[in-house]
Design brief:
Blueprint: H1 3-37, H2 43-49, H3 60-83, H4 91-119, H5 126-136, H6 138-164, H7 167-170, H8 173-201, H9 223-254, E1 259-264, E2 268-273, H10 278-284, E3 303-310, H11 318-326, E4 333-335, E5 345-351, H12 359-373
Parallel strand pairs: 1-5
Antiparallel strand pairs: 1-2, 3-4, 3-5
């Protein structure tokens, strides 16, 4: 097996791991947001639903899976930033990338705090949590709101991007998109409503341990230790992210890419650099190109027909081949997001789809010929 197939196979594996871990983390955040939204009813309603929503993540098994998913997702995200030729693309790409780098530092604040409180013997219910966030440590509560917002933006952006690449679901997206706004807004309103309740009561955070044996005191909340560990995790993740960005800059500063002459039929020509994909070359030079899955090789909307190749083109990866076969493209068609530019020369291609392509337009195109013939 050559190095190229091994690399493309590894990229496919990383994509799958990133998708699976991302969906798991999105489920974690979504259940917590839904639980918070019940604050619009009462704090008692939040606690009544807790075993079925946020509480299901509190077992040893789910915690281990959550930690594994966090580490995998963050590590794969850092690796994608390191190897990506250009950090850019659409606004959605940038928002997802930047929010992804902040997920681990912020999510660690919540996870570490809850676990340590439980280890200290504290009954962590929403009555206690809301009192801590609104009365004892409002700054800490603000960080939690920021955490949920950033994590939701990152997860929802990736989830909707994944759905966009599926023709059977694309038509339903206008009905799904409102949930991207409704879920966090309702959670914030629920959190605010619960906060107003405790502010009106004016009672500080209390830890109540029922049926304590004589001689035992109620557990103390280890705020100082929690904050210390959370700060270490947060700043460690920040430093790691900065090191990856520096390593990326150094790698491309030391690289000596070759020039490849690219031409798109009916669009124009430009010079690109080797070491990037054809889609990245389009983006770098400001040429719009359809890519509903944002370069993940799933939708096939970035497909181009190879008209003339005076350069060495690597064979399609397993992922690219599967997408091309599913769309019944011929051997002269490649996915721009999966076609690496590896050597100097010239390449002439033709777009299969227009830059503003949508699956809805494709359905209309497929129906119109039969309507005309009828």
């Amino acid at each position: 097996m050559t190095a190229a197939p091994r690399r493309t196979g590894s990229r496919t594996l990383l994509r799958n791991l990133r998708l699976i871990s991302g969906l798991y983390l999105l489920g974690y955040v979504t259940s917590h947001l839904i639980n918070l939204s019940l604050g619009l009813i009462s704090i008692e309603a939040m606690d009544a639903a807790r075993p079925y929503l946020s509480g299901i993540w509190g077992t040893d098994v789910t915690r281990l899976i959550l930690l594994t998913a966090l580490l995998f997702h963050y590590a794969i995200g850092l690796w994608s930033v390191y190897e990506r030729p250009r950090i850019g693309g659409t606004v959605q790409d940038l928002v997802q990338a930047l929010s992804g780098l902040a997920v681990i530092p912020l999510l660690s604040i919540h996870a570490v705090g809850v676990v340590m409180l439980q280890r200290a013997g504290v009954d962590v219910d929403y009555d206690l949590i809301v009192r801590i966030f609104w009365l004892s440590n409002p700054g800490y509560g603000l960080i939690q709101v920021l955490l949920l917002s950033v994590a939701w933006v990152h997860g929802a952006a990736g989830f909707f991007m994944w759905l966009r690449s599926k023709p059977t679901i694309a038509s339903a997206l206008p009905w799904i998109y409102p949930l991207g706004v409704a879920v966090p807004v309702l959670a914030l309103l629920g959190f605010t409503a619960a906060g107003r309740i405790v502010l009106a009561s004016g009672i500080g955070p209390q830890v109540v341990q029922s049926e304590i044996a004589p001689g035992y005191a109620a557990p103390e909340i280890p705020f100082a230790l929690i904050i210390q560990i959370q700060s270490s995790v947060m700043w460690g993740a920040v430093v790691l992210g900065v090191l990856v960005l520096v390593a990326r800059l150094m790698r491309y500063a030391l690289a000596k890419p070759a020039v490849i002459h690219l031409k798109t039929k009916n669009v124009g020509s430009f010079e690109g650099d080797t070491g990037q994909t054809l889609l990245d070359a389009f983006r770098t030079h400001g040429q719009p190109h359809a890519n509903l899955c944002s370069g993940r090789g799933r939708c096939g909307t970035c497909a181009v027909r190879i008209l003339k190749a005076e350069t060495n083109l690597l064979a399609p990866s397993t992922l690219e081949r599967a997408t091309l076969d599913r769309l019944k493209f011929g051997g002269d068609v490649r996915l721009a997001c999966q076609l690496p530019l590896t050597s100097a020369g010239a390449l002439t291609v033709e777009r299969i789809n227009e830059p503003d392509f949508s699956f809805h337009e494709e359905e209309e195109t497929q129906v119109s010929p039969s309507q005309v013939s009828a």
